Amino acid sequence: xxxxxxxxSGHTGIEAYSATGTVNVTQAGTLDSAGHGxxxxxxxxxxVFVGKTGDLAANWTGLSASSATGGVTVRMTGGDLSSGGxxxxxxxxxxxxxxVEMTGDVTAGGDGVAASSSNGEVYASVIGAVRAGxxxxxxxxxxxxxxxxxxxxxxxxxxxxxxxxxxTGNATVSLAEGxxxxxxxxxxxxxxxxxxxxxxxxxxxxxxxxxxxxxMETGLNNTVTNYGRIANSGGIDDFAIxxxxxxxxxxxxxxxxxxxxxxxxxxxxxxxxDALLESGSLLSLGVxxxxxxxxxxxxxxxxxxxxxxxxxxxxxxSSSALLLDVDMSAGTTDVLQVSGTAAVRGEMTLRFATASxxxxxxxxxxxxxxxxxxxxxxxxxxxxxxxxxVNDGRDLQLAITGINLAPEGLTGPGSAFGRYLT
Length: 422
What we know:
The protein is 2% helix and 57% strand. It contains 1 helix and 46 strands. The longest helix has 9 residues. It is elongated.
């Protein structure tokens, strides 16, 4: 069935049904429906195909395509879709593939795009913005089929932003472009297969307060590869990443801001050079696992004194930067409380909330089993300071001995006056 001109309907705009045969629907014009937009259904094992190049508006479900056991394909190469209910629903109850390929914006009162199968592979790819009252884009099955979501464009969702869930198959979510802002989890992946979240440079994922930026439920060998930004609208002390179900590796090349919990498994966290980790109060990698840092580590983010409890080990390489907030009036600094060992190298920059000429000392790295290396260089010329191991080599202490009134690089009258005072 094809529709090539404008159609306005008081109920379902286009309805195609077969008890056993193949169903094909193509919409090439504008469709405006007071009920459902397009409904394409076969109750047998044949396939269903829906193609769209024009705008579609519906008060209820925008587009629904389903087969009892056959393959389902929805391919929308142009035009936008808006609906009062779910935007696009594509499903089968068999083992054949379900695919949704959408180019254009989706605005839905319910879920934006929902693709599902009982046991087949499921893929949803959207190039365009998605605004949904429920889940933004989801690919799910209840069997062993692989599932994947690829999003190119902004997502604003009242529920989860992007979802890939399979009972036993692999699940992948890739954010290629745009920002995901979710009322629940930004990205949610679940199942007993390998779970992979890929976040491209220039993108961001923000989970809702009380949820997570990236949530991984169970999984087998899980990976989070971030070149963008992962955060939580609840702030620095809410979850950026929550993946407590199985082995998880986090590769951060961008920014991660918030709590991270990976559970008691064989986990890893690599904060690469030029990456930023703004840790919350919890950085749980599991006993024996290591945070390897070659980038910037900032407990609490900028301008907030915070203690980060790191369950695991800390290994800061020579290219590392540690940003440490200091409030001398309150007698506090950021603290990294490490349950295992800590090797601390690189540069440390002090950021003062308040400062004082009165000497003071602060234990800013504490460990359960010892400091294995210490080669930190304090880059602030504003104060005179030193770093040393204390408490039988278990902790690192910052000693601020005074204010440097004539720091290197200061010229002119200020330099002369500073030298005079000192």
